[in-house]
Amino acid sequence: VNGDQAALVGKEQHKSAQSLLEVCAELCGQHRLNLYQTPKRKTVEKHGRDLQDIIGQQQGKRALEIAAAGNHNLLFLGPPGTGKTMLASRLCDLLPEMSDEEAMETASVASLTQ
């Protein structure tokens, strides 16, 4: 179930459970969880989008650079068609790759929403 998250730990094999009850049964010796091959850790591809492709929007581009460099939050406000989504789509290409610890923390938060 959480094979992608297990890949963050760095083990070649992992046991996966559908529920906490299955984990408890495994720990009590009442049930055996199967071993699975852990998938290789996924790397995020850069989309090749560049801030230089955006004409104008100097303040928005500067805000993106500052937010990415300083790990700050960013909120774009404005009417439809002013470039908010276009600017926001460039942010992921400015950010550095996550460390293993950051990836684990992000995966933990993401798993709570599933």
Give the secondary structure arrangement, pairings included.
Layout: H1 3-7, E1 13-15, H2 20-27, E2 35-37, H3 58-70, H4 84-88, H5 91-94, H6 100-112
Antiparallel strand pairs: 1-2
Give a short summary of the structure.
The protein is mostly helical.
Structure in words:
It is a single chain. With 114 residues, this protein is mainly alpha-helical. It folds into 2 domains: 1-44 and 99-114, no CATH class; 46-96, no CATH class. Helices cover 42% and strands 5% of the residues. The protein contains 6 helices and 2 strands. It has a two-stranded antiparallel sheet with strand order 1-2. The radius of gyration is 20 Å and the shape is elongated. The relative contact order is 0.15.
What key phrases describe this protein's structure?
single chain, 114 residues, mainly alpha, 2 domains, two-stranded antiparallel ribbon, 6 helices, 2 strands, 42% helix, elongated, ATP binding, P-loop_NTPase, Magnesium chelatase ChlI-like catalytic domain-containing protein, CHLI-like, Mg_chelatse_chII-like_cat_dom
Distance between the termini: 11 Å
Order of SSEs: HEHEHHHH
What fraction, in percent, of the residue positions are helical? 40-55%
Continuous helix count: 6
Give the overall pLDDT as a whole number: 82
The number of distinct structural domains comes to 2
Outline: elongated
Q: What oligomeric arrangement do these chains adopt?
A: single chain
Alpha-beta classification: mainly alpha
The strand order across the widest sheet is 1-2
- The total strand number stands at 2
Task: State Rg.
Answer: 20 Å
Strand content: 5-15%
- Let me know the largest β-sheet: 2 strands, antiparallel
Low-confidence segments, given as residue ranges, are: none
